[in-house]
Write a structure and sequence with these properties.
Layout lengths: L32 H5 L3 E5 L2 E2 L6 H16 L7 E4 L1 H9 L6 H18 L12 E7 L9 E5 L5 H9 L2 H18 L5 H14 L10 H19 L7 H15 L3 H10 L7 E7 L10 E6 L11 E6 L3 H6 L5 E2 L3 H4 L1 H18 L3 E8 L2 E9 L4 H13 L5 H5 L8 H4 L2 E2 L1 H6 L2 E4 L1 E4 L2 E7 L2 H9 L4 E5 L7 H6 L2 E4 L7 H9 L3 E3 L5 E3 L4 E4 L2 E4 L3 E5 L4 E4 L4 E2 L2 H6 L9 H16 L3 E5 L3 H9 L5 E5 L10 H9 L3 H25 L4 E5 L12 H13 L5 H16 L11 H6 L1 H20 L5 E6 L5 H22 L6 E6 L2 H5 L1 H7 L2 E4 L1 H9 L7 H9 L16 H15 L4 E4 L7 H9 L4 E4 L4 H14 L5
The chain binds phosphoenolpyruvate and magnesium ion.
Length: about 950
């Protein structure tokens, strides 16, 4: 629920360097004696490694994988890993390593020479190594890599002699100088490319491979001169100096702009550092019996059990990724090099069994001999995750509880949303990015008002609602639009909350959009989009594109809507099997936030067993209702107000009847009116304009008088701080007849259902309570009306009366409040707002800076602040239970659908969480994850 309070501004998306980087830390005075004794370098060679898979913190993901593969007896070229602790120390010591660690590394260099049977700088058998980064979390392509290290003027001849291939030796040397020159010496790549082009041109070579040994020797000479000219020093010939320089460059690359940006996006901490892997080179580019490739043990896009990947013959690793040559499908390797292919299949399926997860691997074949260079758990789409997890159980590779942990709860949303055809989506360039508020693919013609959205939809058009921000009276437009795109607002803004609740793809806070609602157009990146132009966006990634892109509906929704039989949809069956396993282990109940019968039915179909929050005011915006609500607000005496309320009564009763019925006897928490009344009236400025226009036309009589009365009332209702003003329980206290009407509508609906033989369990919830006396006041009304209705109807209904805990004072005095309240539902949206003192509608103005500067790790309106707001929740749980041991405890703020918040709510021992209908499956799985990994009270 957004309040029409102030304008919202998009969070700044630019990524600034964090103020506190490892290198900016106050330097540690001296290396503590204890640290010198600590181990910083770990070897892996000849079937034995000093590390293993459990040591990702120290060795990084790549280092831990290399160690594990070595221990498993796989053909891994020997090497060693310099730990992440060394990286952190390097920064702390002012960008150098203490001598003890340099010595430790030297000892490992000697060990590696022995294991590899080659020496650095040798003219007969030179040792060449790769130097690669590897943090705990994979950050593909973000940091630097150096290959062929160890080559110098002497070693290149050694390599030539050993391989009997001068062209190959000089090409390797050329590549090395270029990489080292760029990464370590920071010479722009173009300068090298320029020299290379000059040689190619002079020798009439069209492509790189047209250059022979002599041409490459000339390139090497030119590269060395370039290095000398730019740095004033010759290209380093000492392999150890090369190694130290490269190692330090990898450490330095931990803090390059793209690595920092990547960490922001994926919430990877800044202070964990990267490890460095030094490994004997094997060559995929020695000729036609060599090659290199990457792959997955299963298809990471759709989960199919197929060997998936690509390779190149006669190439080095970077050629596959760089896209210079088109790689071939990995299955063709079976024909080209059957023995290596068979081995690769055997090794990778062994790895899959060993890690109990799909593997993403890299390999090189040098003269028909296969080497494994990397393995890690493969990243996959939500769809693939569900397919793989269920297949792993069928194949008896894991147990159901382990399979549950193979699926990220949030990724389930992807299965419920329409999707773009990936190939079509790729074709259209990116226009901008916003906050991914509600997942799903949306493509439609831009409209700028909700009325227009409805009108065009009625004409059979597909529309995308583009607004600066949305407000409660946009609900009709939001309902019909393919998607909602706003320029301002955060993750709990109106567009985000309602978009998620409706399952409508939404992007909010796309600050680059300059929207002219009156002019019915927006501009972005210099392009103007007019009403009717096609716009598409992916609500999962936040990407916005201009143009039309075809979508496909989610099969799961089609089954739930009865348009497809469950047995016809493989993904539906897997989805419901997985969630069935989740339901067996979770302890938290799952409810939904819904206020319409159809939303409630969908929530039930998704597995919600109860409504945790029915926002009754949302019902006030339906067809032909707002006028009645306005009449109620405009009434300046109780009698007129009661007359208007009497007209609203049958409408609300009908809504409650539908919602209670859809829940099949499960509890339904219905909240009495919450927002400030002015939200139901037109804007002051709009009214003033309308009156001025009428005056200019010389209008007199009822038409203009009505507007003037409305304006007077709007002005009377004006508040400086509506969010802290006349809303919530305060409305019920000043206008008890509103509470009376709502209670009557609820109980009459329940009685009607009872007469039809349908059970219902209403729970009446009073919002914004900070004082027990507020609750008592309203509870007295509810109990009185309940008794009256039951007597009139001759039916008994069991019901509860409780409160939201969303004002800090409510949490602090929860023991007193529990005397009256039969349940608490934590309203963590308002509780976050009031605990921080951050307006939930205005946080967009500074959220970006707070995230950039790491003051926040995550938006606290999205993921619960366990330290502050969470402390209030935990305190209220304890105090509430002390007074009333069997008090029902739930949460209905937006955090109820956020997996990490659900962990917290599990831990503090709530009875249930309530999420928007489309997040119910996410909540079911997250609650299972919590139950599998955290004990209540831990
Ligand atoms: C809350 O404050 O957490 C809540 C659920 O209520 P609303 O978002 O309607 O203020
Ligand atoms: Mg609230």
């Amino acid at each position: 629920m957004a309040k029409k309070t102030a304008k919202k501004t998009a969070p700044k998306k630019s990524v600034k360097k964090p103020v506190r980087k490892p290198g900016n830390r106050p330097a540690a005075k001296r290396l503590p004696a204890k640290a010198a004794a600590k181990k910083y370098v770990y070897s892996f060679a000849g079937g034995k490694a000093e590390g293993d898979r459990t040591m990702k913190d120290i060795l990084g993901g790549k280092g831990a994988g290399l160690a594990e593969m070595t221990n498993a007896g796989l053909p891994v070229p020997p090497g060693f890993t310099i730990s992440t602790a060394a990286c952190n120390l390097w920064y702390a010591e002012g960008r150098k390593l203490p001598k003890a660690i340099e010595d430790e590394m030297m000892a490992h260099v000697r060990k590696l020479e022995q294991a590899a049977g080659a020496q650095f700088g040798s003219t007969t058998n030179p040792l060449l190594v790769s130097v690669r980064s590897g943090a705990k979390f994979s950050m593909p392509g973000m940091m630097d890599t150096i290959l062929n290290l160890g080559l110098n003027d002497a070693a290149v001849e050694g390599l030539k002699a050993r391989t009997k291939n001068g062209r190959f030796a000089y090409d390797s040397y050329r590549r090395f100088i270029q990489m080292f020159g760029n990464v370590v010496l920071e010479i722009p790549k173009e300068k090298f490319e320029h020299e290379f082009e000059a040689v190619k041109q002079a020798r009439g070579a069209k492509i790189d491979t047209d250059l022979g040994e002599e041409g490459l020797q000339e390139t090497v000479a030119r590269y060395k001169k370039l290095v000398q000219d730019i740095t004033g020093k010759p290209f380093p010939q000492d392999p150890l100096a090369q190694l130290k320089g490269s190692r330090d460059a990898v450490f330095r690359s931990w803090n390059n702009d793209r690595a920092i940006k990547y960490r922001r996006m994926y919430e990877i901490p800044d202070d964990i550092g990267t490890a460095v892997n030094v490994q004997k080179m094997v060559f995929g580019n020695t000729g036609d019996r060599s090659g290199t490739g990457v792959g997955f043990t299963r298809n990471p896009a759709n989960g199919a059990k197929e060997f998936f990947g690509e390779f190149l013959i006669n190439a080095q690793g970077e050629d596959v990724v760089a896209g210079i040559r088109t790689p071939r499908p990995i299955t063709e390797l079976a024909e080209v090099m059957p023995k290596a292919y068979k081995e690769l299949r055997a090794f990778t399926s062994r790895l899959e069994k060993h890690y109990k997860d799909i593997q993403d691997f890299e390999f090189t074949i040098e003269n028909e001999k296969l080497y494994m260079l990397q393995t890690r758990n493969g990243k996959r789409t939500g769809y693939a995750a569900v397919v793989i997890a269920t297949d792993f159980v069928t194949e008896k590779l894991v147990k159901p509880n382990e399979a549950l942990l193979m699926v990220e709860p949030a990724s389930l949303s992807q299965l419920l949303s329409p999707v773009f055809d990936p190939a079509e989506w790729k074709k259209v360039p990116l226009a901008t990015k916003g906050l991914p508020a509600s997942p799903g693919a949306a493509s439609g013609q831009a409209v700028f008002t909700s009325d227009q959205a409805v009108a065009w939809t009625e004409q059979g058009k597909k529309v995308l609602l583009v607004r600066k921000e949305t407000a409660p009276d946009d609900i009709h437009g939001m309902e019909v639009a393919q998607g909602i795109l706003t320029a301002t607002g955060g993750m709990t803004s109106h567009a985000a909350v309602v978009g998620r609740q409706m399952g409508r793809p939404s992007i909010v806070g796309a600050g680059a959009l300059q929207i002219d609602e009156k002019g019915r157009c927006f501009t972005v990146g210099g392009q103007t989009v007019k009403e009717g132009d096609w716009v598409s966006f992916d609500g999962l990634s936040g990407e916005v594109k201009l143009g039309q892109v075809a979508t496909r509906p989610s099969e799961i929704l089609q089954v739930l809507a009865g348009k497809m039989k469950p047995e016809e949809s493989d993904i539906y069956q897997r989805f419901s099997t997985l969630l069935g396993w989740a339901d067996k282990v979770r302890r938290l109940g799952i409810r939904a936030n819904a206020d319409q019968p159809d939303q409630s039915e969908l929530a039930y179909a998704f597995g919600a067993r109860g409504i945790g929050l029915c926002r009754t005011e949302h019902m006030f915006f339906g067809e032909g209702r707002i006028e009645k609500v306005q009449r109620m607000i405009l009434a300046d005496n109780e009698q007129d107000r009661r007359a208007a309320l009497a007209e609203l009564l049958p409408l609300q009763r009908g809504d409650f009847y539908g919602v209670l019925k859809a829940m099949h006897g499960e509890p339904v928490t219905i909240r009495t009116i919450d927002p400030p009344l002015h939200e139901f009236l037109p804007k002051r400025e709009d009214l003033m304009v309308e009156i001025a226009k009428l005056e200019a036309r010389g209008a007199v009589g009822a038409e203009i008088d009505g507007k003037r009365t409305l304006l007077r009332r709007v002005e009377q209702l004006h508040e400086f701080n509506p969010m802290l003003g006349h809303r919530g329980v305060r409305l019920g206290i000043t206008y008890p007849e509103i509470t009376e009407m709502q209670a009557r509508a609820i109980f009459e609906a329940a009685c009607q259902l009872a007469k039809e033989g349908i059970k219902s369990a209403p729970e009446i919830m009073i919002p914004l309570v900070g004082l027990v006396k507020e609750l008592k006041d309203q509870k007295t009304i509810v109990d009185r009306v309940a008794a009256e209705v039951m007597k009139e109807q001759g039916v008994r209904i069991s019901y509860l009366v409780g409160t939201m805990i969303e004002v800090p004072r409510g949490a602090l005095t929860a023991d007193e409040i529990a005397v009256e309240a039969q349940f608490f539902s934590f309203g963590t949206n308002d509780l976050t707002q009031m605990t921080f003192g951050f307006s939930r509608d205005d946080i967009g103005k500074f959220l970006g800076s707070y995230l950039d500067r790491k003051i926040f790790d995550r938006d606290p309106f999205q993921s619960i602040d366990t330290v502050g707001v969470g402390q209030l929740v935990a305190m209220a749980v304890e105090k509430g239970r002390k007074t009333r041991p069997n008090i029902k405890l739930g949460i209905c703020g937006e955090h109820g659908g956020d997996p990490s918040s659900i962990h917290f709510f599990h831990k503090v021992g709530l009875n249930y969480v309530s999420a928007s209908p489309y997040r119910v499956p996410v909540a079911r799985l997250a609650a299972a994850h919590a139950a599998l990994s955290v004990k209540v009270g831990d």
